[in-house]
Amino acid sequence: MPKKRFDRLCHIGYIGTLTIGVKMKERKITLNAEKRKVIADQFQSFYENKVKDKLEQAKEQYNLIREKAKEQIDKVVRYHQPQEDVDTIRKMISKYSRSGGELYEDNCFYVSRPIKKVDDEGREYDANDEIHIRFDMSRKFARAYYRDELKAKGLNPDYNLAIQDDYSKRNPKYYADESAVLGYLGFNHTRNDATGKNYLKDQWENDFKLWTIGSNYCHSRQFRVDENTLNFFKMYIQSADNVIKEHEQMYNYVEGKMKTLRLGLKSYRTFDQAKALADKVGVVLNETMMNESSSMALSIYSPDNLASLLEDKEVMTREQKIAIARQQMQQSVN
Questions:
Q1: For position 290, what pLDDT does the model report?
Q2: Residue 166 to residues 37, 93, 128, 253: CA-CA distances in angstroms?
Q3: Which of 15, 81, 224, 314 has the fewest CB atoms within 10 Å, i.e. is most exposed?
Q4: Residues in Cβ contact with 295 at an 8 Å cutoff, skipping those fewer than 6 apart
């Protein structure tokens, strides 16, 4: 073949390759429900990271005060119920069974101090300034304190906040999220759980207890304290409430942003539109995230894996699906 003709063909081929390359570059990624969720998750992480420090600080503050509260309540209880009295009753119980007295190891305490109050007619009367101190954890506190851990497990610690105390909004997803979260924390399990697993709730219940004289009815034991001690315990209770409050405020802030974002994403048809928004807001977003999402879906639902999923056996967990996807992606790279 003459050299000029060969050079001309090569030139045409090169131009054709460039044209195809330009067309491929100009091809836009169309958004679907799955890709919109990936984008929304990036924005949600961005907004959570902006305010989550307040929740972490509230947890740290609570942890510090909790340790001091343990020391303080131990002093209060042992002042009113000296250890030698506890030991004496234990010996009596050993000798006379229940007739010898009652002891109960508890993490629940009532403390109070006498005060004067004034009724509607201006008359003074004696009353008690009383507070209830606990060293276990409530469900609200647990969802707030372990929020990051729950989310890392693919669980939804915000399910109760989403309905805003409107229980008419409880639906099957609400109950599924509730069951999964409470199950992980240990609230759906009895103390005699046959699995023997030490759930987070159990760890908190057993973290701190004191032997007290009396029955297992916490309110039957009231310990008198001075004003400074009572105020300290009020501060301890408030520190736990602050953890719950910061969780609620973080959720409300992020959800307010996400409601607006979701409306916008519904109107976006291409990735470029979402990318432009992300750049303006400061959210890291790139096409690789979209491709990884699609690759994972293709890997999980490849013919072999889909056939396996359709077999009559235990449903795969989210972690198992991700592991399969990663394995398939690694094989494709190799």
A1: 78
A2: 26, 50, 35, 19
A3: 314
A4: 325, 329, 332
